[in-house]
Amino acid sequence: MTTMMRSEIAEQPAALRATLDALLPRVGEVAALAGQTRQLIFIARGTSDNAAVYGRYLIEARAGRMSSLAAPSIATTYKRKLDLTGVLAVALSQSGKTEEIVETLAWARDCGAGTVAITNGGEHSPLAETAHLALCTQAGEEKAVPATKTYTTQLAALAVLALGLGAEVDARDLDRVPDAVEQLIADPGDVDTVVEGLAEVSGVVVSGRGMAFSTALETALKLKEACYLHAMGLSYADLLHGPIAVVDERTPALLVAADEGPTLPGTVALARRVTGAGASAYGVGGGAELAAASTASLNGPALPEWVAPMGLIVPAQILTEALARRRGIDPDSPRGLNKVTQTE
């Protein structure tokens, strides 16, 4: 029986094509809104917050604008007004209905920020109607609780945002993303071996750095919510500052990297350190170098680092769905979770 999660993973190439077709013509609108701003804040929770981490690294590394993740409680709980003149506030919500995110974006606008909504909820969703500019993704309805296609289309929208902010990238790289994702769905790598390696453990460390850090965080979240694993998502720099002590024969590491870029050598070195200590290291992406240093590996996309996260997450999604079934869990409906989460 095919799960809804697995079906929605397979819909990602089409969802990415539709989203890019809809949003790339709007780069000029982003540029016009962002022209008077000097820095960005991202407003999000959960999976959307992991997408925002990608946006932060992408815009700082390639567009040269300082970016940060907002603390919504400043707006909703402490109700503190800040001077956000010259700030572009970007709110991400899959549904566009999460009250905390809508309220925080309205607060940012009242504080003087330019505002952008990234949502799959459509132009009439509460979040889209609150923003100066709404970038609506085209993922279609997503029924499985663990987000897949809504996450990858958020990354696509953030890539379009980066283009509007003048990112020093080749926009034509985006044309390659849907096909690369399609290839990963057809051949995600050694999923069965990694599933068996994680089937009986209670915890796993998931690590990446830079552009790939968002993938590590999102993979850890998926393993928590769909497989009930104690999954710790960390930058490998933070991992080396102490938490690496938890990695042992009962706590493997899942290491994520693009096939190129400045963080790849460090990820390969970490894989060698983990396996050298007698623990298992499972690679996600990183090309032949990371695969050779790992116990087993999942394939990554043949894409430049700045767009690689849109593909890197896909084998991790496939792993999560397969591991959930291996552990006797329905990945479509994890316990205690709903599709739309409201935070007090």
Automatic annotation (TrEMBL):
Residues 30-172, 194-334 form the SIS domain. This is SIS domain-containing protein. The keyword Cell membrane does not apply. The lineage of its organism: Bacteria, Bacillati, Actinomycetota, Actinomycetes, Streptosporangiales. Its EC number is 3.5.-.-. InterPro entries: GlmS/AgaS_SIS, GlmS/FrlB_SIS, SIS_dom, SIS_dom_sf. Keywords: Hydrolase, Repeat. Gene3D superfamilies: Glucose-6-phosphate isomerase like protein, domain 1. The keyword Hydrolase applies. Pfam families: SIS (PF01380). SUPFAM superfamilies: SIS domain. Transmembrane segments: none annotated. GO terms for molecular function: hydrolase activity.
